[in-house]
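Per reviewer request, we include the raw input and output of the structure prediction for the construct analysed in the revised manuscript.
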Amino acid sequence: MSDEIEKHTPAEPGPLSQYMGDIPPSPEWFTRAIATGYDTRFVRVNGARIHYQSWSSPKKPGLLLVHGNGAHSHWYDFIAPYFAQHYNVVAMTFSGMGESDWRDTYDMETFAEEQIAVCEATGMFDHAIKPTIVAHSFGGFVTILTGAKYGDRLTGTVIVDSPVNPPERDISTRPRQARGNRVYPDLNTALGRFRLAPVQPCDNHYIMDYIARWSLKQVDNERGKGWAWRFDPDIWQRFEFGKPASTLLKETACRIALFRGEESELMPDEVKDYMEQILDRKVPFVSIPHARHHVLLDQPLAFIAALRALLADWDHSEPNRTISI
C-alpha cells in the first residue's frame, strides 16, 4: 500500500512549486473532461457521511471508481466522463479522506461497507446487471475484501496497482503515516508542498495540480489559519487491517482483473507472477505502458482505453479465460 499524498517541509518543495500558484497548461481533452457536470451527494455509513459523485443514471449498469490512500473521488473527474455514456458511473471517497467524515477508528471491513453503501445509494443493485468496482492502490486492497465478502453482488472488480507481495518479498504493506496537521499560510505554499508518494516523476503536472487543489481545504483553528490537507493524518494509528490480501484474493467471489503500471516499482514481474499464481492464471492482467504506480496520472488515456476494452470483453464473454497483456 502507499500514500497518495504526503506533506513536505519547505526544504522539500514539490513539482508544482515552479508554477507559483498558477494552473499548469492542460490539453483540450482534460479541460473538457473536468468541465463535465456531476452530482455530489453523501450516504451515511456507521455514523460517518461518505462523499460520492455521480455522472450518469441508475438506468445504466453500475461502475464504481475508488481512489487510493489519502486521495479522494476527484482523482476520477477526468476519467469518469469517458464511461458515463454506457454506465452509471460513480466515484466515492473513503472516510477519513477528501470530503468524507473522519472516524475515531478505521478498518477494512468498514471501508468495504462504504463501497457497498454507495452502490446501494446510487441504485446499482437495482439494475439487472450487477455493478463493477475499479480501484487504485489502497482502494484495491479494500476492493479485494469487497470482492471476497460481497462478490455475489458484483459483476467484477478491477484492481489497479495494488501489490499482493509474495512471502519472500520483504516490503512493508502498511501505509506510511502522513503528516497532515500543518497549516500553510496560503494556497500557493500548500500547492508547492504537494507531491506523490511513493515518490515518482509525473510529467502531467496539470493533473497533479488539479488533484492537489481538491486535496486542500481552508481552516481556521488552534493550529492556525490557512490551508491544510483534507485527509485524517492519524488514520493509520487507529486502523485494523484484518485478513491478509493474499487470502482474500483467493476468496474472490466474482470476476476480477488486475492492472498495473508497467514501470511501477510496487508491481514488478515477481509480484505480477505471484498474484497470477494465486488466481490460477485465469484472470486478465493488463500492464499499462510508460505508467508507474499512479497509473491514472501517468497514462490516463491509455488507462481509459484499457478499461473500456476490458469492460466490453466482460460484457460479451464468459469468465475464466486466460488473458495477459
